């Protein structure tokens, strides 16, 4: 009898997976798996998950090289939750920390345990930097500090965020008209950052935008616009 036959996936074909450091017992993260992710985890010895936001399977460490090497797999009495003990290469968390569970509730405030052990920006390359920045924005939102610019934007609310997007879009247009490539790059980065803040307000990760671009890829822009007006 196979492992898959022991498991009970939910209506979406998913089940939660708790990932634990095999050496220390520390809980590293919680994510979801579908049947394909389980199969590929068994086949490769590296943990695969299913991203609900991106709508696809992914290999932990595929961008960063921070793989999770399987040491033991357990499942609960109902077969609807996995516990995988791993050897963690590098950091499990996108913030560069060993574990995602670094925030502790102390009754009336949040305490942050430990500093990143890996430079978070080193975990990502190419367009993945957008995902890294987005997650840092969400981290600043949930774990605010007095000097956090992101926290100040969320405190001031949606109108302030929209105002900054408009301001940066105007500055980008001016830079584009000016013809200075370095200035344009600078303003494009500012605009992209504030767009990510807006996405974070609505809990829309970059992958949602990537998915929409993929949907449009190869389609006439005129036809795509016409399809939205019908």
UniProtKB/TrEMBL annotation:
What the entry lists under NCBIfam families is as follows: histidine_hisI (TIGR03188), PRK00051.1 (NF000768), PRK00400.1-3 (NF001611), PRK02759.1 (NF002747)
Residue ranges of every copy of the Phosphoribosyl-AMP cyclohydrolase domain listed in the record: 29-102
What class does this enzyme belong to in the EC scheme?
A: hydrolase
Q: What's one GO MF term for it?
A: phosphoribosyl-AMP cyclohydrolase activity
GO biological process terms on file: L-histidine biosynthetic process
Q: State the name under which the record lists this protein.
A: Histidine biosynthesis bifunctional protein HisIE
Instruction: Return the Pfam families for the record.
Output: PRA-CH, PRA-PH
Gene3D superfamilies, per database record: MazG-like, Phosphoribosyl-AMP cyclohydrolase
Q: What is the originating organism of this protein?
A: Desulfuromonas thiophila
Report which reactions are catalysed by this protein.
1-(5-phospho-beta-D-ribosyl)-5'-AMP + H2O = 1-(5-phospho-beta-D-ribosyl)-5-[(5-phospho-beta-D-ribosylamino)methylideneamino]imidazole-4-carboxamide; 1-(5-phospho-beta-D-ribosyl)-ATP + H2O = 1-(5-phospho-beta-D-ribosyl)-5'-AMP + diphosphate + H(+)
What's the family? Answer: In the C-terminal section; belongs to the PRA-PH family.
SUPFAM superfamilies per record:
all-alpha NTP pyrophosphatases, HisI-like
Alphabetical list of InterPro entries matching this protein: His_synth_HisIE, HisE, PRA-CH, PRib-ATP_PPHydrolase-like, PRib_AMP_CycHydrolase_dom, PRib_AMP_CycHydrolase_sf
């Amino acid at each position: 009898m196979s492992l898959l036959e022991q498991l009970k996936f939910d209506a979406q074909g998913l089940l939660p997976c708790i990932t634990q450091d095999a050496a220390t017992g520390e809980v590293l993260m919680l994510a979801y798996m579908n049947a394909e992710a389980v199969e590929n985890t068994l086949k490769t010895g590296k943990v695969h998950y299913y991203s609900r936001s991106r709508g696809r399977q992914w290999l932990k460490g595929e961008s960063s090289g921070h793989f999770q090497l399987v040491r033991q797999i357990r499942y609960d009495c109902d077969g609807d939750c996995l516990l995988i003990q791993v050897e963690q290469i590098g950091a499990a968390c996108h913030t560069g920390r060993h574990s995602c569970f670094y925030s502790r509730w102390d009754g009336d405030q949040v305490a942050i345990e430990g500093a990143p052990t890996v430079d978070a920006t080193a975990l990502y390359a190419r367009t993945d930097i957008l995902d890294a920045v987005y997650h840092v924005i969400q981290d600043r939102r949930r774990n605010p500090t007095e000097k956090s610019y992101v926290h100040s934007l969320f405190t001031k609310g949606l109108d302030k965020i929209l105002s900054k997007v408009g301001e940066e879009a105007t500055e980008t247009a001016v830079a584009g008209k000016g013809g200075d490539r370095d200035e344009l790059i600078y303003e494009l980065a500012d605009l992209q950052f504030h767009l990510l803040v807006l996405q974070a307000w609505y809990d829309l990760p970059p992958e949602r935008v990537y998915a929409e671009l993929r949907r449009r890829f190869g389609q006439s822009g005129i036809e795509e616009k016409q399809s939205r007006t019908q």
